[in-house]
Amino acid sequence: MKYVLNSPAGSEYGPMTAGSGTADSGGGVIRPSSSWAWMAVWSALLYAGYFVLRYAGLWTENDTSVFTSVAQETLRAGNVLFPGQYVHGFAYPSWLSSLSLLTGLSPMVLNAAVVPFVGALLLSMVCYVTYRTLLGSDRFALAGVLILYAVPELMFSVLRGNHEKLNIAFLLMTVFVLFKGVDAMRRGIVQEIAVWSVLYYVLVFANSATNDYFGSTFVVASFLTLLLLYAYTRWRSADEHLRTATVRYGATILTSWLVVWWVMLFVFPPAGSDFSLLKTASQKLSHLFLTLNPASNPYSSIASAWASPFVSNLMSVFRVVLLIASVIVFFVKVRLIALRRITPSTPTVFLLCLYTAYAFLVGIAIPLDFVGLSAGSNLEVRNFTYFSLIAAPVASLGLMDVLGRRRAGGKGQTPERGALEMGWFRRHPRLGSVGVAVTVVLIALGMFKTTLDPIFSNQWIFYSPGEKQALAAFHQLDTATAMWSGPDNRLVYVFGELFPGNARNNQVTGYNLRSAPQNTDALWSPQVVANTIAQGAVVPDFTTMNRVYDNGGADIYRTAPKTIFQN
Amino acid sequence: MATALVYEAPPGRATVPVTITGGVVRIAQALKPIIVMHAMGGWWFRNGMANYNLDVEVYGPVRSMWETIPPTEISQFGQPSYRIITRMSANGTPIWDYRSLIPALPGEGVNRTNYAQREGDGPLKWLPSVSPIWPYVASGFSHSVASRRGVRQAYYRVGFQQPNGEEKPPIAVDWLTGKVVDFSEIVTVRNQNASYDFYSLTPIVSGRINTPDFESPWGLYDLSGKGQGYPNLIIRNEHYYANDPWSKGISAVSQTAPAAKKPSEVIRYTWADHPGNQYFNYKVDVFGFHPYPGVVSIAGGRFKVVAPAYKSYPGWVIGHRWPAITFVDTNGKGYATSEGIYDWSSRNVGTAYWRGWTATPNLSQFRTITQGLRGEYMLGANRKPILYMSPVDRRLHLLYAQGGLWNLGGGTQLVEGNLAGGQHIDLWTLEHTATTTPSRHKVAGKVSGKASVRSSTATSVRSLIAYLDGYALYSGHGRLIVKKVGLPAASFEIAPPTNHATWLSFVNRLAPYVHSTGIPHLSTWVAQLAGSETVVGQASLSGLGSTKAGFFGVLHLGRAFSAQSNALGLPLAIRPGEYMLQYLKQGGQWKIAPVTGRGLSATVTAGQSLRASYSSLLRLALSNQGGAPITGALTVRSGSSVIYSGHVSLAAGASEDQTLQWTPQHGGKHTLTVSLGNRLVGKLGVSVAASSRAGTLTLVAGSVPGLYAVLWSLGVLLFFSLISFGLWRRVAEK
Known about the structure:
heterodimer; A: mainly alpha; 21 helices; globular; B: mainly beta; 23-stranded antiparallel beta sheet; five-stranded mixed beta sheet; 49 strands; 41% strand; flat
């Protein structure tokens, strides 16, 4: 077993107060740092295992279906440029199709049963490494990872079959590289500066090629972070080297915009269409602020997706807890810094600046959501997911102060002791156990939300073998026919995955039976009926239709003709 | 084979830069030809005849096809935009002209093949070229230039189409800019007596059997045999083969649906009762799902297409039965067109209806028509497009027409109806729609003189005439006339002409019937019918209906009504007021009874147990148990929400069933009420079972596939056990 002692406090990142690593984090007992890392790995595999096995791999949703189809089309086209390609980035479908060629597994199986494990592993490992760097503690790096497990929105993004698992991994890697780059710049080690800068560009390229929105968002966040870091160094007149490094590395970030534009304009020209969103967004924003009439309200109908308002609130509770906790920690830290009661370490300052930058992105996403952009009206939700990646280590930083019983660092340091340390916690040593139990409960609760479990959710992602068989029969036995399949697009996504080219010109539709006038067929299954009732939608009158197919688990009904045109 | 390269002026210049050295003309190497022409036989002009056996490639933004994407959008550097093949007869007349679009343009609904085939043999006048030795460059000006400079008399107008009876050189140049504008059609589609043409979205290529779509084929015919350069029958067809992806482009509704699985065609069959002069008199417009009958060779056998052959095409259209037919009569005025009469397309009954997605057609297009035209429509039964002559209005009608409209202008229109639902139009109502606008004075007095001016329209019936069970009924100008005529409802039946013989027959049969285009006086229509009659002054008739037993209507007798004659013996010894007039065929009886509206009973039954959130069918049984017909607005409600509203018209003793769709929103007792106007005529209490979210166990079982449930449960148990154990160990170690 390899024993690793964390970098000595203050040796690398200046005044070291953000945790002194594994050497003392457990009360002075030296532990193998790999055991914490293994815990991160195993917990990720367990989480992904639950996600995949909950429905025996029979699950899908919008993005998963879209990217599975696009990956299949990529394989068919043998090219990343083809009609119907995902226009915001080609990397994820290309990666998925490459994995398919490598393993011989279909993109559908890969996306539903294999890639979730990869996504969870990427998240846990990259988070662990990045948090460990920023917090200087294995234990609290793992705590940060576990906090993320309790954020179902993030876990859903990571486990479902879309580009976000790569974007999140790239984002955290870029945070790590950014921090290392600034530090190398501060220390003036040219070789390291070169390596970290090149890595930064590579990661910005990878992130933009995966999704130009997330790629450019991170560049904005990086720039804001360094801007804040620079403001801090000016304000506190602290660490002149850091100030210089910030300015110099800022140039690296600014030039990384060229990488983003290069991807959008030359590497993958379809992404260039996203530039038009800037104009639309500015027009709609000015309309919103001039008239205060939102074009859409994406926050109005969230409760209807859950079994009850209580469940809706319950499922969102940890989001709020994390937000409040991180905000408290942030403001306490900022107050202590302002009062000069502590001299924070570089990683701590960097983390707080990063936190502020992402909070800003969440803040500006809210009015953008209200203007109803065609590219999506859920930017706040998406940005919050990324914000939570930064909020988790901030919350963990608070936990370190509360539970960490850290010692002051080496010479010349101003201890942060007492920043959040309260005697009450010291008198209740079992509080840690309670905290662990609460974390487990929150993670378990989050897992229900991540899998959109039908016990709590009205919007389901699973499908039954009978439904899958009925969809296949519909595709094989008929042509140019439209079939209703439930109160939402649950089975539409399955059909899209199963038959991406739809060579037989059939169509599966969702929502109201009559919302698509072309529906002549309707799929019945116990799941369809239960889902329809759960969503408060109308169950079609199957008794007036002719049953044309029955596999025991699902039926297909056809509307009886009333005119000669309906024959 | 001779080859010619055609250059146009490069950007920034109005002439082609050439150098002439020792009699050799040289063009800058960087300049690429915009047209490459190959002449079969290696000659261009011989014995006064231009060689139109041409293979042509067009490279630049030169309009070379009819209504395809703008040429500037398809011009590709170094790649041809269009390929053109033309061939001529032994006497030098171009006989066919094939053009194809080269860029694939996936997803763009544009013509990819144009094909025109000369079917007539009229003489051609050859228009001059700029060069006597290479006769392909038109010396004319584009239309705008010709107009601007006032030189139209001196130079002919160039453009894409060939003029009637003339043949101009195909390369049209804008001489002011030095650019080639058009490579004109060489065989014209429209401006000749007869042609067989294709404008297809799906390309027609050699080496396979093609299934062209969109305007495939056009058929232009000279049925008179005396054509002067224009057809007098145009068959314009919009056809899509089964599962044709372009069939989705027909309407916005279609674009989100699968392509139509059946072939479909909508055909404008427009003809004139005189030799072709660009003006037409009649159209039948048919829509249906017939596959094309066979394979036709075109372009001298170079291409094979699935289509009706030219000669049998008119018979193919008129001989088939169609589920939607319209008929348009220009009433002798003539309608100038090169593509057929556009009004009242038979397909415009709603995409959802003809695609079979709904049982209700959209009849809104049949509420208006171009002034001077009269249209009729027939839907929902497969029938041949047969016309008949009515003895009432002495005009042609569509057999089995369900309604019609004649726009007489000035807000006046004659609405045709088919009360009996039979073969013939039996009701003509002369209506006037008046639009009233508040006077400026009144409006100005409202809000600072800026009040919006709202106009309102009101339609009033001026007179009507019905022809039911051998009786003509006229109501108008304060008079009611009932006349026993006894004539058949059709003087003769006739099909639209398909060849010279049937055209002659058609013209001859219609010759005695003189068209008048003014507002008809319906009283004169009754007057020209012979028979015994009853005439009542200060009386009118409305709400006419027809049943198997006879017909009925609401009789309004004014205070001073009087029977001026009563040869039919109507029981008119009654007081002024509103009565239900009824004629019973059996025994030839007339009945007049007061209008009460009573006697309607309604029962609602549910054929199944009702559940909240479940769509269910209700059966509404209506029965007129009174002694007089009943008409009015019927409403079915559940509480205050309306389940159904419609119009009911029931003869005495008649009954009617209707099926209603209802989705109860919640469980419990519901009361359904049926009202005629404001009067309650039926009531039903129904019990609706509640629908609630499925239980937890049901949901878990339903979301876990079969035997996998056991493994799943064990897995979940293991999962949580491991996590708990691991965490417990960690905590315990501390």
